[in-house]
Each structure stands twice: as C-alpha cells, then as structure tokens.
Amino acid sequence: KWQDGEYVVLTPEEIAKAYPRTTQTIEIEAFVDADEVPFVYLERPYYVGPVNKGDKVYALLREALKQTHKVGIAKVVIQTKQHLAVLIPCGPALILNLLRWGGEIRSWEDLKLPPNDAKAAGVKEAELNMAKQLIEGMTAHWSADNFRDSFKEEIMKLVESKASAGETEEVTKVEKAPSSSGADVIDLTELLKRSLKGGSAKSTDAPAPAPANAAGKSTKPSKPPAAAKKSAPAKSSRTRRAA
C-alpha cells in the first residue's frame, strides 16, 4: 500500500532482485567503544573460532579489540536477509552478535519515565546512598552456574516422579523441528590483512555465516578486489550459535 486507495504491485522478479546477495562476507562499517552499544539491540550470538592456520590472526583481532575496548559494527547476509552485527571479544573467544535495526527498537520517548536526573526525579541524597549500600551489599561476580531455571527443574522432577510411578503413555512420535541455520565460517584473515594495509574498515570483506551445509566449502568473493575463487584464502575461523 502506497497511499489510501493506491497500491504498488511488485513482481516476484523485482522482489528477487531486491534481496541482498549471500556474498559470504561481513562488511565492517566501523569500530566503536564497547559500551556504546545498548543491550536492547543485542539479538542472536554466534561463536567465532579459528580454523586451519588462523590462530594468530584470530588472537590478533581479539587482543586488539580487548586492548582498545572496541567492538566491530558490521553488516552480514545470512541466507537472504541482511543483518546488522557486532563483533565482540569475550574471554578467549570472539562473538558475532546479530543486532536489531534501529527501526525495530521502540523509542523510550514514548514511555512515561521519570527525569534522567536524581534531583529532577525527586530522589533525595539519603535515599540514593541507601540504594547504593544495598547494591554494594548484593554485588557478586557473574557466573551463569549460579542461576538456574527453577521451572524446568520442577517440571523434570514431576516427569521423573510420574515415570517412576509407571504413569507413562505411548504417543505418536513428534517430528523434530528443522534446525535453524547456524555454525558457519567467517574468514578473519583477509579482514585483518586489508585493515593492516591501511584499507578502510568499511570496504573490508570477510566471509560471513553461511548455511551449515556450506561449511567447509570455498566461498565466492563479492567484490572485484577480492581474490578469484581458485585463489581464495583459506578460511581461518568458524562460527557456531552461542544460544
């Protein structure tokens, strides 16, 4: 729908042309301070790991990001959909976390929130100090093992109890849902080579997550400066769904 009573009709061919090409690349747009990316934009994480002889390149990028406290903002095409993503150093690993587009996030200006200032919000100094003390008293080191899904645990106890009591029934076998696209290959070697040679971050290529059945195969470069398929560099990293 274009306007009231007016529609624009697109043919399947025109729609197909608009799809982004699955180029097997990620395009680094910029590097930004790690704390500039709000958590609300984070969507789906992938682990990125080195393959073949990519250990040094992998470690170089990881340590450079750590020491500069930066993350890489990139665009990546998975199947036929273009995503915004952020490349994050996390312990010994690199994480490629897909991001939501800006238009997908509701603005907090639509919400009735108190002023973004303690005094303007009517918070007294004594109240603020008391809240700080509470936070300090409950401060701990983060560990996922310290938190459990109590609902799942209770359900499993119930299942085990019923099974032990012989309360089981035969049911039609449930078909497994098709697995979502995940573990795939990203080449960080070419990314670093071009960056270290002075190339702009935006024009740097590196193969992006591809369907699982394409893992381990050569990827076709998308831009003229990239090497031809026969001389494409060996893949130096592998991604796997982190969640």
Automatic annotation (TrEMBL):
Cited InterPro entries: DNA_bd_Ku70/Ku80 (IPR006164), Prok_Ku (IPR009187), SPOC-like_C_dom_sf (IPR016194)
SMART domains documented for this protein: Ku78
Annotated spans, Disordered: 196-243
One Gene Ontology term of the molecular function aspect: double-stranded DNA binding
Highest rank taxon of the organism: Bacteria
Keyword annotations from UniProtKB, A to Z: DNA-binding
Gene Ontology biological process terms from the UniProt entry: double-strand break repair via nonhomologous end joining
Residue spans of biased composition, Low complexity class: 211-236
Record-given protein name: Ku-like_protein
PANTHER family hit by this protein: NON-HOMOLOGOUS END JOINING PROTEIN KU
Ku domain span: 4-116
A Pfam entry, by short name: Ku
Gene3D superfamilies given in the database record: 2.40.290.10
Keyword check for DNA-binding: yes
